[in-house]
Amino acid sequence: MSGNPHDVTAAQARVAMARQQLFGTLAEVQDRLKPSHLAQDAVESAAQGVASIARKGAEAVRSRPIAAAGFAGVVGLFMARGWIGDIVRGRNETPDADKGLKEKAARPAKKGSPK
């Protein structure tokens, strides 16, 4: 190769610069792929998603407050359906003071059952 020595020196400098950039990029990639950084990125991404959903929900409530209140009421009634049913059927009443709480009589043991 009968080339100009200045071209060889310039090429070697470019190679050294490219190698340095490559190693810098590899170090950055290794840093980004650490489990602690991956977990932190996942948490930040999830937090941004939750914040976005909350913001959209708040906007929906502001735009339709009556519908939101109705929906919340329906959900509340659905969740309290057993308790409301007990009140309607009268199962939640306390006994009269004169009757008091009486213990149930002991049941006689069945034949063949262990005591």
Topology:
Elements: H1 5-32, H2 35-63, H3 65-79, H4 81-89
Helix pairs in contact: 2-3
In brief, what are we looking at here?
The protein has 115 residues and is mostly helical.
Would you report the number of β strands?
0
Distance between the termini: 107 Å
Number of contiguous helices: 4
User: What's the alpha carbon Rg, rounded to whole Å?
Assistant: 38 Å
Classify the secondary structure makeup into a structural class: mainly alpha
What order do the helices and strands follow? HHHH
Largest sheet: none
- Mean pLDDT, nearest integer? 83
Shape designation: elongated
Low-confidence stretches: none
Instruction: Please estimate the helix content.
Output: over 70%
Strand content: under 5%
Structure report:
This protein is mainly α. It is 70% helix and 0% strand. It has four helices and no strands. It has helices at 5-32, 35-63, 65-79, 81-89. Helix 2 (35-63) packs across helix 3 (65-79). The longest helix is centred in the middle third of the chain and has 29 residues, at 35-63. The termini are far apart. The mean pLDDT is 83.
Give me some keywords for this one:
single chain; 115 residues; mainly alpha; 70% helix; elongated
